[in-house]
Amino acid sequence: MDELLTDGEKRFLRWHGLSVDDVFDARGMSGDVWKRLIREEGKTIALGTACGRGGHRLRTRAGHCVQCDPKKLAFQARHSADQYVYIAGSLSTQLIKIGTCMNIPQRERQLRAESYGGANDWTVIFSVEVRNAGDIEHQARSKLSRFSVTKPYWKDGFSQTGIELLQCSFTKAKEALQSAAKDAALSEPRKSRYTVLYEFDEPA
């Protein structure tokens, strides 16, 4: 890989605490193929075709140019971190939320304080620590895409929109999350004794 990279690309990697060993050669591959392989090989950066803006070749796992926007690296790091993926439920709105966090009690308090999605009674009813938490969350929510809803709420005096909300039962959400996390779990799941209260009706 060393001989495939320019001096400028190597300097960029060093500046961000990376090396040539973190780079996957994605040249000549379709997006679907290299985006799967880069995760399987545990690489951080893809060497691909030049971007249209600056002619850069280094990309995130999602295909974004990291030389044009280095902040994408920080986002990717959070997405790939070992964290908890959780299921929270609101009885008042009969909605489910799947998300990621480092601290479950803190996130529960935050959701309530912000009245996320218009609810202040959020309770985390299921959680599991996983590798690549952001990826697992995305996979689980993708499996439940037909149940997605959006709800407006206010935060810091500004109107926001909750986009991670699901109108489905706890069981449906748990099945999707466990399917996505089956090979990535780092701990035994934690489940509330009150999950039966969150078996909400699903749209026809």
Written description of the protein model:
With 204 residues, the chain is of the alpha+beta class. The protein contains six helices and nine strands; from the N terminus they run αβαββαββαβαββαβ. Strands 7-8-5-4-6-9 form a six-stranded antiparallel beta sheet, with helices on both faces. The longest helix is centred in the C-terminal third of the chain and has 12 residues, at 170-181.
Question: Brief description of this entry?
Answer:
With 204 residues, the chain is α+β, with helices and mostly antiparallel strands.
Q: Tell me the strand order in the biggest sheet.
A: 7-8-5-4-6-9
Helices, by number, come to 6
Content of β-strand: 15-25%
The secondary structure category is alpha+beta
> What portion of residues is helical?
25-40%
Shape: elongated
User: Can you count the beta strands?
Assistant: 9
Summarize the main sheet: 6 strands, antiparallel
Work out the radius of gyration: 20 Å
Chart the SSEs and their pairings.
Layout: H1 7-15, E1 23-25, H2 31-40, E2 45-47, E3 58-59, H3 71-79, E4 83-90, E5 95-101, H4 104-114, E6 123-130, H5 133-143, E7 148-155, E8 158-166, H6 170-181, E9 190-191
Parallel strand pairs: 1-2
Antiparallel strand pairs: 2-3, 4-5, 4-6, 5-8, 6-9, 7-8
Helix pairs in contact: 5-6
